[in-house]
Amino acid sequence: MQHIFASSEGPIEVTLARNGEALQLSGYSLTQHDRGRLLVTLPNGGKCIAHATKVGDIWWVHLNGRTYRWERIEPGSSSARDEGGLVAPMPGKVLDVLVRQGQSVEAGTALMVLEAMKMEHRIVASTDGRVTQIHFQAGEQVAQGAVLLDLEEAE
Amino acid sequence: MQHIFASSEGPIEVTLARNGEALQLSGYSLTQHDRGRLLVTLPNGGKCIAHATKVGDIWWVHLNGRTYRWERIEPGSSSARDEGGLVAPMPGKVLDVLVRQGQSVEAGTALMVLEAMKMEHRIVASTDGRVTQIHFQAGEQVAQGAVLLDLEEAE
Amino acid sequence: MVSKVLVANRGEIACRILRACSEAGIGSVAICAPNDQGSLFTELADEVVLLEGESIGETYLDQAQIIAAAQSTGADAIHPGFGFLSERAEFARHVSANGLIWIGPSPEAIDQMGDKMTARQTMRAAGVPVIPGEEVEEVDEAKTLEALREAAQRVGYPLLLKASSGGGGKGMRAVHDPADFDQAASAAQREAIAAFGDGRIYIERLLTGSKHIEIQVLADRHGRTIHLGERECSVQRRHQKVFEEAPGPTMTPELRDAMGQAAVAAAQAVDYEGAGTVEFLLAASGEFFFLEMNTRIQVEHPVTELVTGVDIVREQLRIANGEPMSCGDLMIRGHAIEVRLYAEDAANNFLPAIGPLAVFRPPEGPGIRLDTGVREGDDVTPNYDPMLAKLIVWAPSRIEALQKMRRALDEFVILGTTTNVEFLRDLCDAQPVIDGSTTTTTIDTLWPKGWNPPHDLTLEDASLLVAAGAETLGLHLQQRVGSQEGVVGPASPFATLNRRYP
Amino acid sequence: MVSKVLVANRGEIACRILRACSEAGIGSVAICAPNDQGSLFTELADEVVLLEGESIGETYLDQAQIIAAAQSTGADAIHPGFGFLSERAEFARHVSANGLIWIGPSPEAIDQMGDKMTARQTMRAAGVPVIPGEEVEEVDEAKTLEALREAAQRVGYPLLLKASSGGGGKGMRAVHDPADFDQAASAAQREAIAAFGDGRIYIERLLTGSKHIEIQVLADRHGRTIHLGERECSVQRRHQKVFEEAPGPTMTPELRDAMGQAAVAAAQAVDYEGAGTVEFLLAASGEFFFLEMNTRIQVEHPVTELVTGVDIVREQLRIANGEPMSCGDLMIRGHAIEVRLYAEDAANNFLPAIGPLAVFRPPEGPGIRLDTGVREGDDVTPNYDPMLAKLIVWAPSRIEALQKMRRALDEFVILGTTTNVEFLRDLCDAQPVIDGSTTTTTIDTLWPKGWNPPHDLTLEDASLLVAAGAETLGLHLQQRVGSQEGVVGPASPFATLNRRYP
Questions:
Q1: B80-153 belongs to which CATH class?
Q2: Which of residues 379-418 of C touch D (CB under 8 A)?
Q3: Is residue C158 part of a domain?
Q4: Is the ipTM, as predicted for this complex, more than 0.90?
């Protein structure tokens, strides 16, 4: 009952303890309530109903009006997070490429203009760095998750 | 693609023809529309969306505001319809037995009083006949489908 | 000061009240019998107390256990909903004696109105017209039937037998022929004892061809007693309402004033507080007679809410908190209709049905309100009343409301349990319903031999194709797993969680 | 005589109109792009015509194909909904020229109001106050930017760039600093050409700190033009409304009369017919200025319906049929709020999101209306606008309506696609929303660096436990199969069925 989830600060390991029908984690307790619904007891004794569903590797969790996403990492698989690629947030069309290969850019520089859902979206540099590769030109269609440009982080 | 369903007039055999993605039956046509929903085309060209779900052996079908139930008979199994037993329509308690074993009754005679869901229900003879066996006495709990009395049909 | 309300009820009315508490920023506690764990209403409460026991008597009617639950969770008020303990003066007294606020009228008012005989006397004294009739209170069981028979002779046929402390059609029988009297009286008495623990029977002249018209009243502690106009609830089967509307289709402003004033006088006669309903029979002659007063929220309150714009449950909370009610002058707009959705076989004498709600897809769109206690995947069991939900529509006019109700019922898909949806849909096409000329005997007159769904051979054939096609396509293999899944057993920590952390 | 309506739209507004037709006893035809097969709205129509083509231009904007669909199905009227072809005078002309009834105003009225410049002139002539600004129409592409720059200089900063034939925030840019002008103007022009096929840009003085107030009007062919009061829609992100209410929280009866009369004058100035909306900016000074008139039903029409009791779509059908509208004098009751539910990442500059609606459970209970075009199991794709549904509440008072909206948003469960539900929920707790002091810059002022969900470590930890626990319990193995199932391919008989049997 050990699971690994991805987070912005790296993988998190979670080990649950079983106590009768309940699953426990440092003061929190969980039991199955009904189809897709779980009953959570918080350390302060408060309880809430959680809805959970898995899409691909991601567990979507609804709790007290808030929604959380946890990507589960299969033991042994490697996370694709730190590759420095700038990916298309959704399917669309490249309208404009604003940088050249080899160009040095600052964090926040607009690199590409994408059109999706009838709106324009700017792809901006996540860090200071250098554009090492441009994978799409203006007019090309891109799929969601496609790597648009490679950015080499400045030392 | 041959199925047998129970009906009040005995078993019905249904043989479907396949035409591309459509299933057909004498002028009617059916295709799958979406999860649990089917698209039916009537002989006059009208179409409607049907919802269908199976509970036990019974297909529940919703069509144009009407709901139909069709009990599917597994090939080779025998129907339990014609046994002459009077069964409890729902779980409850026997309040009163109004007949004796061996008594001759007319169709419509009240045989037993059942309490369920806080209401009284009368079990009445479905045909003229003779009570051959009484399976429960006043005060006893009965499960849904339990045979309450046996009635031998008059010749 | 009401800060946390325990809702001593279940199902759709518990959901209605729990949501009102949540909106008002008031904490809420649900109580829940073991066979109700996982029910929708338990999810809407801030806290849930699992009751011990099996039968209704051991759970939702167990006054001591309910009051203990309120105390252990720190609730300071109890809302009884309708049915169960809502009209037990003794329980209201208990609640108050334990320092809790009772969201409802005083025990004295409940007593005066709960006992049909006392209510009649009080009403007569207040100048409200009552129906001819009399009560039989005979302690000696052997002599009861004889006494009832004699009273029936005096009242005259056709007559109505009613449980003195009854409601909801239980313990009620209409008798048209003296030959049927004995059997009807025995059954009514047995049901009355079983349902209310009180076998007293009241015999009333049956006014056939009358309309059932009731007036919603509200009274606060600041001296204000008002009425919110009428509901017509004439369409009944087994003396239980199935189709309710507001305003009454034949109502005139003058008659509304007269009945409204009578209802306010009735409430004032017992120093009423909170929400209540005064029921009248409106004869074809235009005369109206007091039937009874329901000293609680009513099943059909939504139609009044939709046409008056008053949130009645929210006003109950305000009134119990000692605040003045917030609603202004009566302002009726448009037309609202409610139908009660029962798990029952309308084609078989409305016999209650059970089963899984394998598919439960309510209609959507503007003007539709669904007050439900169930959701897809739930099981309908024989443990409780078979009412699943109330479907309510509002539209600018009565004809548009009926059109909307037809569309809503056509869109409503429920599979896995037999319901009265098709019966309700046919009702919308019945001439007396279209005319607004419904009376309490409309259903019996429309379908003297019982209702049956209209035969449509084309649809029937099509449904057979669907069943065969669905089997061929393997739809049942794609289905969500049935209703047995995920049921929390009595040994689950759910129970203790709520007790451990009040 | 309208007997069968083709709805030239999709999604929630198509559902709204199709249900209204069904209630009115009018036949209905839906049109459907190949990627919309299986969508909810196609189930609500009596007939469905599958359009050929892939892009929006080839389907929902293909006038010839839509008119052919109406003719082949025997439809005698076309309802355009909003967006798509709803404000194309040319299409309205086409419809009429083909002997079909156009459910909307005359092509002349659309032209006069659709072109921002003409509309301003017409309004000025009708005595309706307009905002200072000017339009740039420059055919030579090279000179356009220069001309825009000069006009901007004359109008003054801050300013707003708008597509002359635009709407819905597309092609719109606010410019506060002349240094940003060139980039904003190019982007606005590109978007305008892409969305409306018309690159003309209109430059308007940006009145910061103003409220967006709009007046709903209705006009029939019997000489009656009325207004249904105001909606306040100040809360906008990316110039798109997300939170709308009626009545306006700071509105006075006098101002409502004045703005209502101006709106009626505006409609009468173009011989308006049907439902339309006159949008105004209400400055902090109390002055109001004409912004534009939307010559169609609007997204936020439900809040007006809930407080006035008028079914606006039903009135559209009546008016198009030559009947007088059925609504009486204006009667505003209670308060209604609408929020627009988008598939978008509010924490990431409201970037549109896509994915399956693996769980989609709307809130229930009294006072809640959901106008949705989607249901559980549907996929959100990048093909169309990311608006999933509109959640609308009504309550007797504004404070109760806000309470109800909070409760409703807390109950709303959507899993599988990122939505703005939490953003909307936070909005309900923002002081300007509570005060009713919202202006068009409220969101930027509240979250100058963009909105982020509040951090709650306890809930975050709990959600991690839920994810791990759900995996341990194998909940994903019990789940319904995902969104790929049951999709009908383009070769399915669905297409031909509807064409074969019109």
A1: mainly beta
A2: 395-397, 400, 403-404, 406-407
A3: yes
A4: no
